[in-house]
């Protein structure tokens, strides 16, 4: 994913790293229950998945307060971003957003000859919803919001997001990429499923790649109006696109709240340690609500990336606002100690 942004990977084989902190993966692995489900799936791999789709959708629907008809399952949420871009880019459709953000849907929109209108993030690196609203006009086909945002790790206040979605969705579908939503404490989440249940034209993209650790297993979904899903489904291989093993593992992982809570708690602990260490070194970390964080660096980005790699630590860099930044994923506590040690070495 996004290899073009990532210089060390272009040189060929992935080097052996002590800390792989460039892809916002779950360093703790998958739930034991998901592992057991994958093993069970071996024996029924000759069968097409059938009732597993219904069971997975029902579990999600019950949690979100929507109906199973409001859910489409996909192999990761990248597929949702792709098909949404394919659909809304048609006839030079315009997507309104705020940047820097996760550019996948926006890049694909351009591939399919759509247009992007973007406003900068606010001074505190949050989505600027008011400025976005001001840009919405008759050409706008979609509003794209990534919340929590990648690469900044920031969120918009849940009430502001809900108000934006309420106000804008009667004219333009509001698409919210919630890949990192599970890292928020349950009480802090925007609960936008409610708006979908009320019939609003709101689309929520979700993934199992993060808290569930399914980045390589591939499972995602979108919560939206049934008509919208019917339209989007035409761009997919539908229920042939997801394996029975993936679904069985997804069902087991979704039910395993202990594992999700463990991953969230460990992530917050390692994030706090890293924030503190960087702050003590005089770096201003943007407060993160996710499993990665962004902070300004004082070296050339590619030099920094290369030297961190040479010390066994994979990270990513960004350049915006006249500043270079390090985006580091939150690994295990040990990996974050390795990161901090390498960072001290490289910057001293
Ligand atoms: N959305 C955001 C904001 C992401 O950061 C990512 C991956 O890092 C994705 C979507 C896509 O993830 P996946 O296709 O693994 O669900």
UniProtKB/TrEMBL annotation:
Keyword Cytoplasm attributed: no
SUPFAM superfamilies for this protein: PLP-dependent transferases
Entry annotated with the keyword Signal: yes
InterPro entries assigned to the protein according to its UniProt record, in alphabetical order: Aminotransferase_I/II_large, HistidinolP_aminotransfase, PyrdxlP-dep_Trfase, PyrdxlP-dep_Trfase_major, PyrdxlP-dep_Trfase_small, TAT_signal
Keywords: Aminotransferase, Pyridoxal phosphate, Signal, Transferase
Superkingdom of origin: Bacteria
Gene Ontology molecular function, alphabetical: pyridoxal phosphate binding; transaminase activity
Gene3D superfamilies (UniProt xref): Aspartate Aminotransferase, domain 1 (3.90.1150.10), Type I PLP-dependent aspartate aminotransferase-like (Major domain) (3.40.640.10)
One Pfam family this sequence matches: Aminotran_1_2
Every Aminotransferase class I/classII large domain range: 21-343
Family that this chain belongs to: Belongs to the class-II pyridoxal-phosphate-dependent aminotransferase family. Histidinol-phosphate aminotransferase subfamily.
PANTHER family xrefs: HISTIDINOL-PHOSPHATE AMINOTRANSFERASE (PTHR43643:SF3), HISTIDINOL-PHOSPHATE AMINOTRANSFERASE 2 (PTHR43643)
Protein name from the UniProt record: Aminotransferase class I/II
């Amino acid at each position: 994913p996004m290899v073009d942004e990532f210089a060390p990977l272009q040189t060929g084989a992935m080097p052996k790293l002590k800390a792989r902190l460039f892809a916002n993966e779950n360093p703790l692995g998958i739930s034991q229950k998901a592992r057991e489900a994958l093993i069970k799936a071996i024996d029924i791999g000759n069968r097409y998945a059938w009732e597993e789709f219904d069971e997975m959708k029902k579990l999600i629907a019950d949690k979100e307060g929507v109906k199973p008809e409001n859910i489409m399952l996909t192999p990761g949420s990248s597929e949702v971003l792709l098909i949404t871009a394919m659909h809304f880019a048609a006839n030079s459709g315009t997507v309104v957003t705020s940047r820097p953000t996760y550019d996948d849907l926006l890049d694909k929109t351009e591939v399919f000859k759509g247009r992007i209108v973007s406003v900068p993030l606010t001074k505190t690196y949050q989505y600027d919803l008011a400025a976005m609203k001001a840009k919405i006009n008759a050409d706008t086909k979609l509003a794209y919001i990534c919340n929590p945002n990648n690469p900044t790790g920031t969120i918009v206040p849940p009430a502001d997001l809900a108000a934006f979605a309420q106000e804008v969705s009667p004219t333009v579908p509001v698409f919210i990429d919630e890949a990192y939503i599970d890292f928020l404490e349950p009480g802090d989440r925007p609960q936008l499923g409610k708006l979908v249940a009320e019939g609003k034209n709101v689309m929520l993209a979700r993934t199992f790649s993060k808290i569930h650790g399914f980045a390589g297993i591939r499972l995602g979904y979108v919560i939206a109006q049934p008509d919208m899903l019917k339209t989007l489904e035409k761009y997919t291989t539908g229920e042939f696109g997801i394996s029975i093993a993936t679904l069985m593992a997804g069902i087991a992982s979704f039910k395993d709240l202990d594992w999700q809570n463990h991953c969230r708690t460990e992530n917050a602990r390692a994030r706090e340690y890293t924030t503190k260490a960087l702050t003590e070194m005089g770096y201003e970390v943007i407060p993160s609500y996710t499993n990665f964080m962004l902070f300004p660096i004082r070296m050339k980005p590619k030099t920094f990336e290369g030297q961190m790699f040479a010390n066994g630590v994979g990270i990513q860099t960004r350049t915006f606002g006249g500043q270079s930044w390090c985006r580091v994923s939150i690994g295990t506590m040990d990996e974050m100690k390795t990161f901090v040690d390498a960072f001290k070495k490289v910057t001293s």
